[in-house]
Write a structure and sequence with these properties.
The structure is a single chain. It is built from twelve helices and 27 strands. By secondary structure, the protein is α/β, with parallel strands linked by helices. The protein has two domains: 272 residues, Spore Coat Polysaccharide Biosynthesis Protein SpsA, Chain A; 122 residues, UDP N-Acetylglucosamine Acyltransferase, domain 1, CATH 2.160.10. α4 links the parallel β4 and β5. The longest helix has 12 residues.
Length: 453
């Protein structure tokens, strides 16, 4: 049976997905996101107005027909676990479907998870008890849409022991950032290097390389064998990229699945959002008239948990005090009360008070922006109360002096803890209509209240 037939035979793929268990690795801190992950794991970070990052790999599983899912947690997992229980706890185990949390509980070791491979090894008895034929290993901190059933079918057709999902990226983008592989003409991996300084380019394109997406399919028994061998190696870092994959290339069949758009084989949407600039940029891209990531796709919905909230509200309509939003996404529970919002994303329950202005910013849930505050080119973390008259993103040296995180690009991160000693600022009685133009950042990729104020 040929690959094309497999990819179009939905019944065949359905049988494969029913024999597959997915393990989502969601224990990482995401330290490059700085203070944004001081109190939450990276997969729990908010994204796209109403989602968490982990909703994307979980939704891919459900939409692909894979409904046996374990989520491995470790670093500051409270908000992540709460989200999983509320939004993903409705599956019926008796029907062969579940989203189970696998916390670091030292089941077979005195240590916490030492690496990606060790996180599976320490849950080996739990995974084995489900008796899957194939195991899909996913990163919980990436934003993309992908049908894992197609990759699974190719894995089986090629007779592989393991399949690594890969994507074509510019060489300079992959350097020191991604695992990079070389393949032969049949798609078999012949070399794998974790985060090389000088990635090897493709044979037909000196500017592009094949980067690992951190997404793997294993034959279950083969994975168990490799995890046990790795666990007994005291010199190992117990990591898939650094240890498991390089050790099995020579003697086993490791296949590279090239993630491409079906229509034109172009590079599909996939974001690591591992830095503040990348996180901000990926959110800003959603504001384009036709964004590369279509979160409105009814054929591939992104599932999540959200509270029951009233619609967004815009109040006051005169020349100097108008509740206004343009080229923006405004979530439920928001009230824009005489303030102005442009080119921004407001998550749920954000309050924008009179004469304030927000531009080119990502504002996370439960933020209050008080009167006459002006914000540009910023990420405002959840539960921040921006004092009256405060300006953020206009004088970067002053922002640094206040203790805000200022990136080299000019992007400013503000968290609740950073605002503890900030007092309301003196401000000029300017109107929103006469505010100064907002400079643009360079592109590397691309508690509500009932009264009105």
């Amino acid at each position: 049976m040929g690959c094309t037939v497999l990819k179009t035979n939905s019944r065949y793929i359905s049988r494969l997905t029913k024999d597959t268990a997915a393990i989502v690795l969601a224990g990482g801190r995401g330290s490059r996101l700085k203070e944004l992950t001081d109190k939450r794991a990276k997969p729990a970070v908010h994204f796209g107005g109403k989602f968490r990052i982990i909703d994307f790999p979980l939704s891919n599983c459900i939409n692909s027909g894979i409904r046996q899912i374990g989520v491995v947690t470790q670093y500051k997992a409270h908000s992540l676990i709460r989200h999983l229980v509320r939004g993903w706890g409705h599956f019926k185990k008796e029907l062969g479907e579940y989203v189970e949390i696998l916390p670091a509980s030292q089941q077979c070791s005195d240590s916490w998870y030492q690496g990606t491979a060790d996180s599976l090894f320490q849950n080996l008895d739990i995974i084995r008890a489900e008796n899957p034929k194939y195991i899909l290993v996913l990163a919980g901190d990436q934003v993309y849409k992908m049908d894992y059933g197609v990759m699974l079918a190719e894995h089986v057709e090629k007779g592989a022991d393991m399949t690594v999902a890969c994507i074509e990226v510019p060489v300079e983008e992959a350097a020191n950032a991604f695992g990079v592989m070389q393949i032969d003409d049949n798609g078999r991996v012949v070399q794998f290097t974790e985060k090389p300084t000088h990635p090897v380019p493709l044979k037909d394109d000196p500017y592009t390389t094949l980067a690992s997406m951190g997404l793997y399919i294993f034959n279950a028994e083969f994975l168990y064998e490799q995890l046990n061998q790795d666990a007994s190696n005291s010199q190992s870092q117990h990591d898939f990229g650094n240890n498991i994959i390089p050790s099995i290339i020579d003697n086993h069949h490791i296949h590279a699945y090239r993630f491409r758009e079906d229509d034109n084989h172009s590079r599909p949407y996939w974001r690591d959002v591992g830095t503040l600039d990348a996180f901000w940029q990926a959110n800003m891209e959603l504001l384009l008239p036709e964004p590369a990531l279509n979160i409105y796709d009814e054929d591939w919905p992104i599932w999540t948990y959200q509270q029951q909230q009233p619609p967004a509200k815009f109040v006051f309509n005169n020349e100097t005090r108008r509740g206004f939003a343009a080229d923006s996404m405004v979530s439920g529970g928001c009230i824009i009360s005489g303030g102005r919002v442009e080119n921004s994303i407001l998550f749920s329950d954000v309050r924008i008070n009179s004469y304030s202005m927000v531009n080119r910013s990502v504002v996370l849930p439960n933020v209050v922006i008080n009167r006459h505050a002006r914000i540009q080119n910023a990420i405002i973390d959840s539960a921040c109360h921006i004092p009256e008259g405060l300006e953020i993103g206009f004088d970067l040296q002053q922002d640094k002096a206040r203790g805000f995180r200022v990136c080299d690009s000019g992007l400013v991160l503000v968290t609740h803890d950073m605002l503890k000693n900030i007092k309301p600022a003196k401000f000029h009685q300017h109107t929103i209509a006469t505010s100064a133009p907002i400079p643009k950042l360079p592109h590397k990729v691309f508690t509500t209240h009932l009264h009105f104020n």
